[in-house]
């Protein structure tokens, strides 16, 4: 249409809203079309004029809507000029040109589809649909070129599922095309010495004929190969032209998809790196807290030792009558000091560097000693602890590391039941398998359970289901490493809103 303000023709390309191009009247193709009444009306009775108008507007639509290759635009311009002159000289029928324009439009629509997504999986499906719609073949395979490994890898391959076909560059029909850049039409695959039958053997397929052409990048570098197998009719010259043209767009689309994937992966890595930095800061903070707690525990240990020593002296120096009268009070002081000293010693075992030597360890005693550290928290939270532990053989282990594992599991169990159950409960069980000579420890809770999607990742480093900033996501990873270093196994069984069981197995 013509802009009533400026008098310049305004052209709305297909699929573009609120965007238009302005050209001076008489300049360019649209400018030439605008002043001529008989060519500006797409509904003209003159079929020849309709074709000319269509060709001219189609070129404007082509240039304004998409980023096509320079070769394609040049070819289209040449075709338009020849088509218009041929029509004006009546050297070619409008019907023939309309058929050609139809094929060209299908190619443009195919290119539009290729530019519609940056997702590689969606793009491969689009490639399959486009080629099978235009060229009747049984199978289509698109390969990408890996220059470093000097192989071809299939990104589109029908009939092979998730199997990735790998062919060395220079081997087979596809490998030859990747090496030379030539188009190969092989009517009898097994009669051609370049054919690589190993792929048929692996995929259980019989290749009869092959049409293979290279996929070029914008820089005319071979980035892939397109292979069509077992045609249902001869591939015509029009088919070959279409395949050559569309292969350029496939190359461009693949480049954009790879670049998009690279950006996403880079962004993901940057986010993961940021998370790792935050967790390292948190670990540094925890290390500092451990050092501070260690100092506090040492400061408490000495006064407690003095208290206990003076209690013993007091008992020896008091008169029998006074000692008898004061005995209940002295025993309470002694018991409280002993309990505090035991707690301090346990904390010191955790914050000090563990001794790596291993010795026979009673897992039941180790678990009960660790649980004693959590008595205060469990009592405040109203958690009922069912101790169903029984005597089992000792294991060769580092006691500090084993207690660290138990502390991690008990703390997770407490957090799972607090606020999620009206009657929070933790159950401790153990058993011994004489056949395998292995002991088992089960720590069960009746908490909320672990979401199914998180279950496979629960032992991964830095993974946590807790709110951000409340956990480093390393505790269960550390627990698993300690158990595996002792020749054991650790695993989890969970059911949503029923509870979770963490099991440990160690050699006796």
Task: Summarize the topology.
Blueprint: E1 10-11, E2 21-22, H1 28-33, H2 37-40, H3 47-65, H4 70-88, H5 94-114, H6 120-134, E3 137-146, E4 151-157, E5 166-168, H7 172-180, E6 184-186, H8 198-203, E7 210-216, E8 222-231, H9 237-317, H10 320-351, E9 359-361, H11 363-373, H12 375-381, E10 384-388, E11 395-397, H13 399-417, E12 425-433, E13 438-445, H14 475-485, E14 489-495, E15 499-507
Parallel strand pairs: 10-12
Antiparallel strand pairs: 1-2, 3-4, 3-8, 4-5, 6-7, 7-8, 9-11, 12-13, 13-15, 14-15
Helix pairs in contact: 3-4, 3-5, 5-9, 6-9, 9-10, 11-13, 13-14
Structural account:
This protein is α+β, with helices and mostly antiparallel strands and 508 residues long. Among the domains are: 10-114, no CATH class; 136-234, 2-Layer Sandwich (Beta-Lactamase), CATH 3.30.450.40; 359-507, Histidine kinase-like ATPase, C-terminal domain (Heat Shock Protein 90). The chain has helices at residues 28-33, 37-40, 47-65, 70-88, 94-114, 120-134, 172-180, 198-203, 237-317, 320-351, 363-373, 375-381, 399-417, 475-485, and strands spanning 10-11, 21-22, 137-146, 151-157, 166-168, 184-186, 210-216, 222-231, 359-361, 384-388, 395-397, 425-433, 438-445, 489-495, 499-507. The chain has a 6-stranded antiparallel β-sheet with strand order 5-4-3-8-7-6, with helices on both faces. The protein has a 5-stranded mixed β-sheet with strand order 10-12-13-15-14. Helix 5 packs parallel to helix 9 (237-317), helix 9 packs antiparallel against helix 10 and helix 11 packs across helix 13 (399-417). Mean pLDDT is 75; it is low at 1-25, 27-45 and 59-69.
């Amino acid at each position: 249409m013509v802009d009533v303000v400026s008098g310049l023709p305004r052209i709305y390309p297909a699929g573009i809203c609120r965007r238009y191009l302005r050209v001076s009247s008489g300049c360019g193709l649209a400018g030439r079309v605008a002043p001529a009444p008989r060519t500006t009306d797409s509904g003209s009775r003159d079929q020849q004029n309709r074709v000319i108008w269509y060709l001219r507007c189609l070129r404007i639509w082509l240039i304004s809507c998409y980023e096509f290759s320079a070769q394609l635009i040049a070819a289209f311009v040449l075709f338009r000029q020849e088509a218009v002159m041929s029509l004006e000289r009546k050297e070619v029928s409008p019907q023939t040109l309309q058929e050609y324009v139809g094929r060209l439009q299908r190619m443009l629509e195919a290119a539009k589809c290729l530019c519609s997504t940056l997702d590689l999986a969606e793009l491969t499906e689009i490639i399959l649909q486009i080629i099978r719609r235009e060229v009747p073949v049984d199978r289509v395979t698109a390969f990408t070129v890996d220059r470093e490994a000097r192989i071809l890898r299939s990104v589109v391959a029908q009939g092979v599922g998730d199997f990735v076909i790998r062919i060395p560059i220079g081997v087979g029909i596809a490998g030859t095309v990747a090496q030379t850049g030539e188009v190969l039409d092989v009517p009898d695959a097994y009669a051609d010495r370049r054919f690589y039958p190993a792929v048929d053997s692996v995929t259980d397929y019989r290749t009869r004929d092959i049409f293979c052409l290279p996929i070029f990048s914008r820089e005319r570098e071979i980035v892939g190969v397109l292979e069509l197998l077992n045609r249902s009719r001869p591939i015509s010259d029009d088919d070959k032209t279409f395949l050559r043209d569309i292969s350029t767009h496939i190359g461009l689309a693949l480049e954009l998809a790879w670049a998009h994937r690279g950006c996403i992966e880079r962004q993901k890595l940057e986010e993961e790196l940021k998370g790792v930095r935050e967790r390292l800061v948190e670990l540094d903070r925890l290390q500092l807290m451990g050092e501070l707690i260690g100092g506090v525990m040492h400061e408490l240990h000495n006064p407690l030792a003095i208290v206990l020593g003076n209690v013993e002296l007091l008992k020896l120096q008091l008169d029998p009558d006074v000692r008898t009268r004061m005995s209940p009070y002295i025993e309470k002081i002694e018991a409280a000091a002993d309990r505090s000293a035991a707690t301090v010693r346990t904390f010191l075992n955790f914050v000090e560097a563990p001794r790596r030597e291993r010795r026979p360890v009673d897992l039941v005693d180790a678990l009960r000693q660790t649980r004693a550290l959590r008595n205060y928290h469990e009592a405040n939270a109203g958690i009922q602890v069912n101790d169903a532990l029984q005597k089992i053989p000792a294991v060769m282990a580092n006691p500090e590391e084993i207690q660290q594992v138990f502390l991690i599991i008990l703390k997770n169990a407490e957090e799972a039941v607090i606020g999620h159950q009206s009657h929070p409960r933790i159950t401790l069980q153990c058993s011994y398998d004489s056949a395998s000579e292995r002991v088992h420890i089960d720590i069960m809770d009746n908490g909320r359970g672990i979401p199914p999607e998180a279950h496979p990742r629960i032992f991964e480093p830095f993974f946590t289901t807790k709110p951000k900033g409340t956990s480093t996501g390393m505790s269960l990873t550390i627990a698993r490493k300690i158990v595996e270093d002792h020749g054991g196994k650790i695993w989890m069984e969970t059911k949503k809103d029923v509870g979770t069981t963490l099991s440990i197995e160690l050699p006796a």
